[in-house]
Amino acid sequence: MTSFDLSRRGLILGAAGGAALLAAGRPHPLQAAAHATAPLPTFYDRMVGNLRVTTLLDGYFKLDQNLVTNLGDEQIAEGMKAAYLDPANPIPLAISTHVIRQGDQVSLIDAGAGGAFGPSAGRLLTSLESLGVAPEDVTRIVLTHMHPDHIGGLIGDNGPVFPNASLHVSETDHAFWTDETIASGAPESSQGFFALARAVSEAYTQRTEMFGDNTDLGGGLTTLAMPGHTPGHSGVRVSDGSDQLIIWGDSTALASLQFSHPDAGIAFDADGVQAAETRRRVLDMVVADKIAVAGTHLPFPGIGHVEEKDGAYAWVPEEWQHI
Questions:
Q1: CA 216 to CA 36: how far, in whole Å?
Q2: Prior bond to 160 cis, omega within 30?
Q3: CA of 77: how far to CAs of 11, 83, 129, 259, 297, in Å?
Q4: What gap in Å lies between CA 91 and CA 96, rounded to an integer?
Q5: How many angstroms separate the CA atoms of 44 and 301, rounded?
Q6: Mean pLDDT, residues 55-78 taken together
Q7: Strands 140-142, 155-156: parallel, antiparallel or unpaired by DSSP?
Q8: What are the residues whose beta carbons fall under 8 Å from the beta carbon of 237, sequence distance 6 or more?
Q9: 205: which DSSP letter?
Q10: Closest CA to 235 of 177, 278, 298
C-alpha cells in the first residue's frame, strides 16, 4: 500500500475528537507527573484457561461525530440515543490495554496513549503498579496497530518505557508507518502519526520482532489479520485449551453505532471499505463460534459477546466475573 487517506469528510481535526488524535500523533514524552491527580486505576480481571487477562483503563477521549463515516446524522443520533448517550455531545471512547500473565511471562497488548492525550489518558504505568507489575517486569508487548493511542505509552523522557520487553508488530503496519515516502505524501494533519511511529520504532529497534498474518507468538497468543483501520491492523487470539478470547483492537470501536451499522467507519481508517469488510468478517466469526471478544474502545471493560440482530449485530457485555 503506497497511499495514505485520512482526509475523508475533511478529517475535521479542529473538532474535539480529531484534535485529541492529532495531539496524540505528536511524539510527546510520557509525563507521569501530569496524571498525578487522575482517578484511581481501573482494571478488570478474567481468566482464559490458566491465563490471567487484565484489562486496564488507560483513559478516554471524545470523538467528534463528524469523524464518523458512512452514516447519516440521523442514524448517528438514533444510535447514540439507543445507547443513552446525548447526541448533542461527542462520542466518549475508552482507551484500554490488556495484560496477560502466566508464570514469569507478562505480555502487554498495546500501550495506551502515554502523555499525548493530556490528563484524560496515560494511566498505564499507574495501573500496572497497582497490579504489582513494574515496567521492567513486562516481557513482551504486542501491538494491534501503530496509532498514537496504542503506542504513545511506549516511550518517555529517557526513551523506551519498557526496558526488557520485546516489541511485536505487524510487518505490514510497521513498514507503512515508518515509510518516509508514504509519510511525505500524507497530509500535514497526519504527520504526527508517522513521527510517533518512527520514534517508537527507533526506541525499540533492537528488540522489535515482526509478525505476519495469523502468527503463533507462543504462550497462548496468536495474531489475526484484521486490515483496514490501518494496513496491518491485527487482532490477538488469547487461548488456553478450549477457552479463548479475541482482542480485536479497533476492528469495532463505536459500540453505539458499528454493531447496528457495521459499514460505519471512522475518518482515521486508512481504507474504509476494507475496514468494513474486515469488521463484518470478524463479527460473523465471533457470532458463529460464540467467541468472547475485547475491544480497545468499547465501554470499559469492553469484554463481551456479539449476537445477530435485525440483519446486523448487537453487543452483549460480559457480566462481571469475580476471580
A1: 38
A2: no
A3: 20, 10, 39, 15, 19
A4: 16
A5: 6
A6: 96
A7: unpaired
A8: 221, 222, 223, 224, 244, 245, 246, 247
A9: G
A10: 278
> Does residue 145 contact residue 173 with C-beta atoms inside 8 Å?
yes
Tell me the three cell numbers of residue 239.
487461548
C-alpha cell at 106: 507478562
- What the block records as the C-alpha cell of 310 is 435485525
pLDDT score recorded for residue 20: 39
Q: Helix or strand or coil: residue 252?
A: coil
169 strand-pairing partners: 210
Residue type, 163: P
Q: Report the amino acid identity of residue 147.
A: H
d(CA 259, CA 69): 14
Q: Write the burial class of residue 26 (CB in 10 Å: 0-12 exposed, 13-18 middle, 19+ buried).
A: middle
241 CB-near residues (< 8 Å, 6+ apart):
49
Confidence grade of residue 119 (pLDDT, cut at 50, 70, 90):
confident
Query: pLDDT category, 23, cuts 50, 70, 90?
Result: very low
